[in-house]
Predict the structure.
Amino acid sequence: MNKGVCLNQRNRIILRLVGGLLAVAACCTMLVATPNNEKISVAAASAARSKAVAHMQLMGLTRWIPSQTWYIDSGTKKQEDQTKKIDDYIKGKIYKGMPYSQIGQNIWSEMNSKFTSLYLYVPVNTIKNIYNCQVTTSSAQSFGNDCAKAVFQSWQKAGSSTPITGVNTDSMLAAVIKPQNSMTKVGDYSVSEGQDTLGMTNSASEKVKVQAAYSLLQPGDALVQDYGTKGHAIMVRSVSPGSKKVYTIEQIGSGSYQSSTGKPSGWRLDTTYSTWIVTSYSYDTLYNNHYVPLTTVFTGW
């Protein structure tokens, strides 16, 4: 099998992706197998929702191999204390999922340019699940997405008009408070102007409302955390109200320096060769980490 990546440092990246998931045909019911082999039937999931989840999975689970070592700048270059790191994609190693990439003066800056999902994955051999990815860019570090942009790309693939450029977790928070950019909150938990997700999850009465909102989530919806210097977005695959769990997929980055364990920056990419996670969270874990639910809004969703 011919597989590899041809990288032109000046203005072109051509990735050949190996073992990627085929785009899932739109359907009305999803059957999800959890890590414990518990199967959850998600009835009446719209074709658009199924498409959004399928695209998120495609971005996160497709495998690819660089033909030469190249780098993604996560915001600030390596420092002596290793609190920042350029992600190193090593020649010949198999990586899973789109790279995590942000461009800016610091790690929280959003990318200045994004590639829409329309151009990301073009099947060239559907029998062998081989995908070509061709991106024209002036900078190798421009290729990829971050947590929020991965959700926006999947929503846009499904038909949402939520933009990809110029929006981030701050924009999600703003839409939770007041619907905008084709986004709105899920549930009836209380919000107020200028509030962050920490303020939305700081009382016993709000815990009841927010956790009730978790039960209303459907495939393709999102969870957002945005307070202080913390910001993250997660896509929902399914929900089990009975066990109070949300099954998710997310673009999470390569891992920052952890003083408690001594793990260096970039440890996740160096260890798992992926910046993505497919997992589940309990309602309590989500609430204690100050996540609130939101969704996109468009006809057919």
Q: What stands out?
A: The two ends are 39 Å apart (CA to CA). The chain has seven helices and 16 strands. Residues 1-43, 75-83, 104-122, 133-140 have pLDDT under 50 and may be disordered.
